[in-house]
Design goal:
The chain is an alpha+beta fold and about 350 residues long. The protein contains 8 helices and 16 strands.
Length: about 350
């Protein structure tokens, strides 16, 4: 009787030990594998623990390998135990599409297929302000195709996609060329060693003559170049020279203001002088000496036009009905305002 009881006790103890060992193993597997998702470290832990890492409840999240080269993507996936298949590709190509999609849960022995390859995305260079041929060459060197519209003798006004954007290799960049801005590049005629942009000046403002001290340089007060560089100069020296770049819209606005809104190309120096002489005699205005002449020049792909007007500000105040005079004065005031803003002497718009 006693021996039978002892045998039963040992049997129960053995059963309890088995149950305990099984529970411990299951807990260890679940803790290592976090339920149903395994990372590379957890798979390694399962393998070291003698657990079957091909169990259907152990899965791997497919990483996003798009944009990687074939070798980079293959190494990334194989490190997770995932097999790889791919369509043919060329050296330098990157993965464009993959199946299953990134984030899909698969068994470690599953296969990920690279269904397409292509050239990597490229940063679009800045070609605004360049001639059509220069911009086209720079873009094509990066592997882009180019489409242009506008005045082919002008400079690039806008580009799409914009500079700095990432665009697929071989994609098309659309360029709009600004009507009226010349394409020719000119070196400074004076040989001045200062870093003057080698582009055609498209707008200048200067004052000549009058009771002024000797000039220290012969450059105009205001110089706007085809590459959008603007220089504000003090020919008498006290104020520092300012050099910066205007936005494309600012340049367009200045040209539109002068040419379209105030008809700069229709203002003729000799005709304006005759009109002023006629009006000042009719109004019996006094003769004023040494006022100085305002000189404004605008250059486009089609025109290179300069207007000189003696005593512009003085006569503009006294002859308000002389339209060509008022138009020229308005252009001078606009350019003067730009100069003051660039020097910090007037608020920004």
């Amino acid at each position: 009787m006693n021996s039978s009881l002892t045998s039963i006790r040992f049997t129960w103890i053995a059963l309890l030990l088995c149950v305990s060992l099984c529970a411990t193993a299951i807990h260890a597997r679940d803790s290592a594998c976090n339920g149903s998702i395994c990372t590379t470290e957890r798979l390694a832990h399962c393998a070291d623990s003698g657990l079957d890492d091909n169990q259907p409840d152990i899965q791997v999240k497919v990483p996003d390998v798009r944009g990687m080269t074939y070798q980079q993507a293959k190494m990334t996936l194989e490190s997770l135990g995932v097999k790889v298949k791919a369509v043919p590709s060329k050296p330098g190509d990157v993965v464009k599409t993959q199946s299953p999609a990134p984030g899909t849960l698969v068994a470690p022995a599953s296969v990920v297929v690279f269904t397409s390859f292509g050239r990597p995305a490229v940063s679009v260079p800045d070609v605004v302000g360049m001639t059509r041929s220069t911009a086209k060459g720079k873009l094509q060197a990066k592997g882009f195709s180019v489409q242009t519209s506008g005045n082919l003798k002008s400079l690039v006004k806008t580009q799409n996609p914009p500079a700095g954007a990432m665009a697929p290799h071989g994609s098309t960049i659309h360029l709009v060329l600004a009507t009226g801005i010349p394409k020719e590049e000119l070196a400074p005629a004076s040989g001045d060693p200062r870093a003057v942009p080698k582009a055609a000046p498209i707008m200048t403002l200067d004052y000549r003559g009058g009771l002024t001290p000797p000039r220290k340089n012969q450059d105009p007060y205001f110089m706007l170049y085809a590459d959008r560089t603007v220089i504000v100069n003090d020919p008498f020296g006290p104020k520092p020279r300012v050099e910066t770049k205007l936005a494309v819209k600012e340049v367009d606005d200045l040209l539109t203001f002068a040419i379209k809104e105030h008809g700069f190309f229709r203002i003729d120096t000799e005709q304006l002088k005759k009109a002023i002489d006629k009006e000042k005699h009719a109004k019996k205005l006094p003769i004023v000496m040494d006022l100085g002449s305002t000189v404004i020049r605008v250059r486009t792909a089609e025109r290179d036009h300069e207007v000189r007007c003696y005593g512009l500000f003085w006569y503009a105040e006294r002859l308000p009905n002389l339209e060509s005079l008022q138009h020229l004065r308005a252009i001078e005031q606009r350019l003067t305002l730009v100069m003051r803003r660039l020097r910090g002497e007037a608020p920004q718009p």
